[in-house]
Design goal:
The chain is α+β, with helices and mostly antiparallel strands and 634 residues long. The chain contains 11 helices and 36 strands.
């Protein structure tokens, strides 16, 4: 097929893609019900929704690999495009399996697994029934870096040589051996290497918002900085051109929002390729580099555009009301596109578009058939005016009038630089379906709202960002039908810290709190950062505080040392294998608050890490949260 014909078919296919999405939304919402009522769903019904991710193609382009938890834990599945058959490639009875790629002619599999949810992360090769741990070692952490250019192997980084050093390796499918591509004795983290293996990109994290990008010449052992000397922004490498002459990267240098740029190695000239009004969060080239997919985060919603690089022209995919497009991938020879679709009432699903027939099909379906998508709550954009006049974005989830109970929750996200998106959130939808109004707050320091907003909480964590949360509570209290005395706070990870900080430092603000694996003692966390965080420890200390230089500040922000102030009911949820927030963080705060005779419910999962992966544990989490809310919010 000629390039011209491919372009024409791609353009036609995009419009077919839009039609398919409209059909998808129509089908998703075809269970019409009486608007006077909605149905309450059980934790078991919510847990029957499937987690989906992936969509990578096999070398021949005849199969799509994806991850699904329909068997109880995330596992690797393959979809045969020709036959429509789905095959379970690998599952583990204890740990989540995340698919990476297929290789060879016999459906061989590369996957990654985090045994027991602990610190070790390994990459495995499966051929038939034979499984090889490519990255052995009790404390080894390995991260996938993609398939190489001729599909003969994969790249990955691993700290097997030294706990603090992440070297780059190439694993060969045929020889079943790994060879070092770059021995990283720098203080930087490695990124992409050039196709001729001469260059490698290195990231130097100065702060959470400032990252330098270096180009290292492996042959001559010299390095140049792609980022300018006066850099006050982040530079994030996205790879090399096929001829190894240009470096691609994302940066917000001289701008509030990130844009896509290239750097010519010979001339040292920078050329802006794509710039939008919001952050460009990712890009994806077609294999022949004739097309470029650009992903933009617009106020917590995904936009995707495809650019014809030969014509220097975009083909827009209109933003859909209830669905977002993520992870679009081009198949070999641009024959197929795979992509992920998610909406506030639709968990992530994988789709396939045939660029020759313009036919789109849904490879996976995620929403439990027992749940009517129309019964779920659509988030509304609201703005909170904080104590200092800063405008704080948030999403308001309101229950249907037939089930609204007058109680409410302020929901806090992780990070601290995370962001609430409008895509499906199982726990929020469960709470709203039980009658609770939810305000999900993107407090200062959240990603997605520009460089300035992202830095507003630096070394003010648990202070200024917590005031944003409290102002969110005041907004809820001012709404009709909300009882100001029945507003609680809930959050996970850093959001869990904000829950504890709210109950500790503002003990009269919230009626109760639910902390999911949150930090209670900053001194302990920052003094015990794992070795594999060495490359970003300086940046972490710049943002949060240095436990040696700023010990008093961190002490005063740690709820554990002032837990005698807590007087409202508290629920704490924790994974025993959590590598980020150790069990001791939750054990300590629970013991202290219980000693004060304050009602505390503690849920400790022996088989979880940082997050709740297993469906039976998700069911228990939702059930116990529901019971806690009935007791303390009604």
């Amino acid at each position: 097929m000629t390039l011209k014909k491919r372009r024409i078919r791609l353009a036609i296919a995009i419009y077919s893609l839009v039609f398919a999405f409209l059909l998808f939304n129509s089908c998703a919402n075809n269970k019409v019900h009486n608007n006077a009522t909605v149905k309450n769903y059980t934790p078991e019904q919510f847990a029957k929704n499937k987690y989906m991710s992936g969509g990578s193609f096999s070398k021949k382009g005849d199969k799509i690999l994806y991850t699904s938890d329909e068997t109880g834990l995330p596992a690797a599945w393959a979809y045969n495009i020709n036959t429509g058959k789905r095959t379970l490639m690998h599952a583990d009875s204890v740990s989540a399996v995340y698919s990476l790629t297929l290789y060879g002619d016999n459906d061989n599999l590369i996957y990654t697994m985090n045994p027991g949810g602990g610190r070790a992360i390994h990459i495995y090769a499966k051929e038939g029934n034979d499984i090889t741990n490519i990255t052995p070692g009790d404390n080894v952490r390995a991260t996938w870096r993609g398939v190489n250019d001729d599909f003969s192997g994969i790249y990955y980084v691993s700290n097997e040589r030294s706990p603090r050093k992440f070297d780059r390796y190439e694993y060969n499918f045929e020889t079943k051996t790994s060879r070092p591509v770059f021995q990283n004795d720098t203080k930087y983290s490695t990124s992409y290497n050039s196709y001729d293996h001469r260059y490698i990109l290195l990231h130097e994290s100065l702060t959470e918002e400032i990252t330098n990008l270096h180009l290292y010449d492996i042959v001559n052992k010299t390095s140049i900085s792609i980022s300018p000397e006066d850099n006050d922004s982040y530079f994030y490498g996205k790879g090399f051109s096929l001829d190894n002459k240009d470096v691609y990267y994302l940066t917000n240098y001289g701008s509030e929002f990130a844009y896509f740029e290239k750097y010519n190695i010979e001339t040292k000239q920078r050329t802006t390729l794509v710039k939008e009004d919001w952050d460009i969060v990712s890009t994806e080239f077609s294999p022949d580099r004739n097309f470029l997919a650009v992903y933009t985060n617009k106020n917590g919603r995904a936009r995707v555009k495809i650019k014809d690089l030969q014509k220097d022209k975009f083909i827009d995919i209109p933003f859909l009301k209830t669905a977002e497009i993520e992870k679009l991938r081009f198949g070999p020879n641009n024959k197929y596109l795979s992509f992920q679709v998610v909406g506030y009432n639709q968990p992530k699903s994988v789709w396939l578009l045939d660029l020759e027939t313009n036919k789109a099909e849904q490879v996976t379906s995620s929403l439990n058939d027992e749940i009517n998508a129309n019964d779920l709550s659509e988030p509304k954009d609201v703005t909170i005016t904080s104590f200092d006049g800063v405008k704080i974005p948030a999403f308001l989830y309101e229950p249907h009038a037939s089930i609204k109970n007058g109680a409410a929750l302020v929901w806090t996200h992780g990070g601290p630089g995370g962001q609430f998106r409008t895509n499906y959130n199982q726990y929020i939808q469960y709470a709203v379906n039980q009658g609770y109004t939810v305000l999900a707050v993107n407090n200062r320091g959240s990603s997605g709202y520009g460089k300035t907003f992202k830095t507003l909480d630096n070394q003010k964590h648990g202070v200024d960002d917590l005031q944003d949360i409290i102002k969110g509570k005041e907004l809820l209290a001012s709404m009709e039908g909300i009882d100001k005395d029945r507003i609680g706070i809930i959050g996970d990870s850093y959001g869990g810290y904000l829950v504890l900080a709210a109950l500790t430092f503002h003990p009269d603000e919230f009626a109760f709190g639910i902390d999911m694996f949150g930090i209670s003692n900053w001194l302990q966390v920052l003094n015990n950062t794992p070795d594999f965080w060495a490359a970003r420890k300086k940046a972490l200390f710049e943002e949060m505080g240095d436990p040696k230089k700023d010990s008093l500040m961190l002490y005063n922000k740690s709820p554990l040392f002032f837990s005698n102030n807590i007087k409202k009911p508290l629920m704490v949820i924790q994974g025993a294998n959590d590598p980020k927030v150790h069990q001791s963080e939750s054990d300590s705060i629970v013991a202290k608050v219980r000693a004060n005779k304050v009602p505390v419910e503690y849920i400790l999962f022996k088989d979880e890490g940082h997050g709740i992966r297993k469906k039976e544990n998700q069911i228990e989490t939702m059930t116990r949260i529901g019971e806690f809310l009935k007791q303390h919010a009604n």
